[in-house]
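Intended use. Records such as the 5'/3'-nucleotidase SurE entry shown here are meant for training and evaluating sequence-to-structure methods. They are not intended to support clinical decisions.
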Amino acid sequence: LVVIQHLSVKPRPAIHVLPRGNFLDSEIFLTFNSLSKPYLTNQPSTHLNSTHFNSAKRKPAVTMHILLTNDDGPPSPHSSPYVHSLVHQLQQAGHVVSVCLPHTQRSWIGKAHMIGQTVKPLYYRPSTEGLFGTEGTTTTRPSANGADDEWILVDGTPASCVQIGLHHFFQERGPVDLVVSGPNYGRNTTAVFALSSGTLGGALEAAVCKSKAIALSYAFFSRNHDPVIIEGAARHSVKVIEKLYQQWPAGDEVDLYSVNVPLVEGVETHKTYFTNMLQNYWRDGSCFQEIDGDAGDEDEEEEKIREGAFGETSAEKPKQGEEAKAGGEVAKGHRHKHFKWAPRFTDVYQSVEEAAPGNDGWAVKEGYTSVTPLKANFWHAAQELHQKELILDSPQAEAPAKAETEITRSSTRLPMRSSTFGAQQQSTTVTTTETTVANPKFHAIINYEDPYVQPLILEAMERLFPGAYSLLPAPQETANDDAENAAKLVVSLPSPDTKILHIAPYESLDFDHVAAHPTTSLVNSYVIRKALIRKHYLSSTVDHWIAKHPSSSLKTHVKRGEHFEVDYAEFLDDALVEAFDLRESMDKNEGIEEESEKEWWILKPGMSDRGQGIRLFSSMEELQGIFDEWEEERPDSDDEDGEEGAATAAGDREGGGDYITTSHLRHFVAQPYIHPPLLLPSDARKFHIRTYVLCVGSLDVYVYKPMLALFAGKTYRAPWEDADLDGHLTNTCLQGGGESALPPVKRFWDLVSSSSSSGLPAAAADRIFERICDVTGDVFEAAAREMTIHFQPLGNAFEVFGLDFLVDEEARPWLLEVNSFPDFKQTGGDLRGVVAGFWKETLRKAIGGFFGVEPVGGGGGGGATDGDMVHVRRVDLGRR
């Protein structure tokens, strides 16, 4: 394997040939584990092959100006034994290192600042006698000769050091590329440690200052600090820092990383994992120890906490009461006492032992380096309650003011656990309503009814349009069946002409209000679009367009379909009278003995989804057998339980019903089966490409570049070799656990490899995307111009679609189907950022211009970067 690294000093590549097997799998490296909120998930960790970090000596691909801080203070054998060796290794690697540290121990201080304090600097020259805790010299004035090795010490916190280092010192060295906080004297794994960590606090301060930041911590297991191990950890840390900086995700998906390196022998050869941060808690009992006298020296106390009994190197648990002894007899009232910080490290270690593998604490325990991507926030929960007012029920409360009444025009009551203060005490409830922003640019009702998508939309709205809109509750259906205004939008609005954004399922949208208010009402769906989303209509749309535009990309990227209608299986032969190509093909196949030479077809119900009812066939006998089987499996037509039968017919695979009730779904499309499909050298499973598409108004069409590859559950075999559909169908909702342990969904661009023997060549991937853009533009224009009855874009609407493409062995993408309201949750948790990025760019494109509101930020974020939403077609339909 050849690795080319571009040096920043001279514009020439340095080429290193690594031994076979010493490589970094770029696909695995880029598959971040829950990037935006890793601490909210328990996903398995992702492996960084550390042999790449530890290959032969080389200069960094990018020379950085690094600002380094910590919470342990200047070098000291008792409280800060690691910082000097890291600075030395960073400088040895060619980086410019500026150091600004607290002048003393500041552990457990988090992201605090000292208010009311004038922060004063000292000037520190590190010792030349050693790197491991040897103390240097401190002066009150900077060196007259402006020495490069002079550090800044401030009587503040790690967060203060970051602010001062970024903005008040080191300007002559140029902008800071990266802030490194650490290495901490002890691990900062799990939430309990991280939330109090000054090391994390310094990195968080850098992140909110819009600087890339890495918090680095060393986890030690012995009180004897071996200089050889520390030096190895420093070298390994430098390589991790360099690699994270080089491949920092675009946009704002990651603000900082928390890196924990175990101080174990051979750490440079151990694996490095992306992990989530374990959510844990202190157990019962206090983290303070009662004492009678004054506490000792702060540095000595910190060393005792880290290395003493029940500290970081201890596997023992304190006995009951041992961590909080109180001397003397019990007296009435308060007894004067002091309290010394004595955290129970064993609580943390026990939580790691009890948790499933894959978190940061587990990685360090096993001797691996953990890398946890983080956002610089305390991430919110219960997002469905956001922007709602909490109203406390009180019979004695005064009537609210008029302004408050206007704000709380409608409410939702949430049941709470009952409380029994007396025999007559009733269960308690709280009432929540939507909060109205003062003078909003527009109002919004967001009720997508999908727990996977709803928080992503709310999050994107908060980021793009903070303070510009007021969130209203969804309109409620009334019990009055003959009330025409049931679930009408107007009942939720301050006035009928209010500017309103309504995002909801298709059935919940008030299209009457949309039609009556074309300049003030914006919804997330067109009224009519069956020219695209029903397979038999899509086939007709393509046929009409190709007839008038024979050079269209649809001619070479959509298989011609044979549409027919079947009410009952016994009438199949009559239904195929006009399916000339299909009948000719099946007749021809009858005279061919070799199965591999026959033309195979795929049968699709015109109105089904989620892979329901799809079958393969090559002869009339096989096709007839498919319909006969469906009729045999369906419930008795005389069964009075019609609703259950209809539900099962709709495709309840789990209930054993993968059949079709032909009298309900009578439209079918048969198309030539695409064989052989493109198979990757490293993965012989068939896959299709899911492309998310945005349509705005009437009509702009956008393609979202971060596409997905959805794989079948089993290895692909030709249809005449294996009739098992698990190897042919790539719908993830159909996979009940195939033979492959590989993920069912990947990022399409992660399939790209510089080696044709392991992945998809970059040039081929680019051509595929270019053709997908052409086909997408053509199919939407075809529907808009040739099928005006069945596709009617509205100027005050937008809609997202999921287009599926199958790539053949010649790398040609074929359009399979168009889905409205695509099932985003099939993307899975690991790739949630793709969906988040798509929705953020969707709202940016669709909302800002309609309401005249400028979205915050210049693009990207949430998994997206500038240019990810590609404009592929503008169709002027003369409607506004």
